[in-house]
Write a structure and sequence with these properties.
Among the domains are: about 45 residues, Orthogonal Bundle (Helicase, Ruva Protein, domain 3), CATH 1.10.8; about 90 residues, Elongation factor Ts, dimerisation domain (Tetrahydropterin Synthase, Chain A), CATH 3.30.479.20. It is of the alpha+beta class and about 280 residues long. The protein is built from eleven helices and eight strands. InterPro entries: EF-Ts_dimer_sf, Transl_elong_EFTs/EF1B, Transl_elong_EFTs/EF1B_dimer, Transl_elong_Ts_CS, UBA-like_sf.
Length: about 280
């Protein structure tokens, strides 16, 4: 049957796919709209399979904190190229992923992707559809939550970095400003743990061995290596764990001291730093 421009435009409006893709799908489906939609979805599945191993170094990181400030969510939706990360359909999809993440009580990526949308289809189906439309791999590469007495979020200006920080013992004080400062510290300084107790044993052992090797290369006596390595480990804690880091805005303070000065006993319970690229 003849495929009219009106038919093509209607399918385009309903699916968001390109004009040529819609025309090809309608032609293959002999004008049947539902069959044509299935063809376009299969096209997305083919692209997803074909580009499964492609790197996704662009995209968007979004955060949201609930109304009472006790639960924060951060997601990263990644794509292959920067231009795609700027298009409206991608940005809309990122907001859809965030909304689904906020409502997903299980906290797993698998359940997130299975979340039904308004049309009854899963979030993964919608992601696959957009892959078919734009011809690039799209993937939810991070999905994290933080629950605490108070959660503060920070989004970097490039849209590709987000931080959640959980605080306790806030004492009822206004903690938004100091929380934002701590979140920005995490964004800039990339701590690996809240405190030294949060550093895994393998990392500690590796740092000790590196310290010994450095001291040995400098000609230090063998009996001194362990002590020197422990000193280097303490420096590592100061540089790499959040509460022991110097506050970027005022190096005379550690983050632990900054928080305690704001409200006696205030500290960080956990944080999540999510970045693309």
């Amino acid at each position: 049957m003849a495929i009219t421009a009106q038919d093509v435009n209607r399918l385009r409006q309903e699916t968001g796919a390109g004009m040529m893709d819609c025309k090809k799908a309608l032609t293959e489906a002999n004008g049947d709209f539902e069959t044509a939609k299935d063809i376009l979805r299969k096209q997305g599945q083919k692209i997803a399979s074909k580009r499964a191993d492609n790197a996704t170094s662009e995209g968007a990181v979004l955060t949201q904190v609930n109304a009472d400030g006790t639960v924060g969510t951060v997601i990263a939706l990644a794509c292959e190229t920067e231009p795609v990360s700027k298009v409206e359909d991608f940005r809309t999809l990122a907001q859809t992923v965030l909304a689904a993440a906020v409502s997903n009580t299980s906290g797993t990526k698998e359940d997130l992707l299975a979340t039904p949308q308004a049309d009854g289809r899963s979030l993964q189906d919608h992601i696959t559809d957009l892959m078919g439309k734009i011809g690039e791999k799209i993937d939810v590469v991070s999905y994290e939550t933080v629950t605490a007495e108070r959660v503060v979020a920070y989004n970097h200006s490039n849209g590709k970095l987000g931080v959640l920080v959980g605080l306790t013992n806030t004492g009822g004080n206004e903690v938004t400003e100091v929380g934002k400062d701590v979140a920005m510290q995490i964004a800039a300084m990339k701590p690996i743990a809240v405190d030294k107790d949060g550093v895994d044993a393998n990392t500690i052992q590796r740092e000790i061995e590196i310290g010994k090797e450095q001291a040995r290369a400098e000609g230090k006596p063998e009996e001194m290596l362990e002590k020197i390595a422990q000193g280097k480990l303490n420096k590592f804690y100061k540089e790499s764990t959040l509460l022991n880091q110097e506050f970027v805005k005022d190096p005379s303070l550690t983050i632990a001291k900054l928080l305690d000065n704001t409200s006696k006993g205030m500290t960080v319970t956990e944080f999540k730093r999510v970045a693309i690229g």
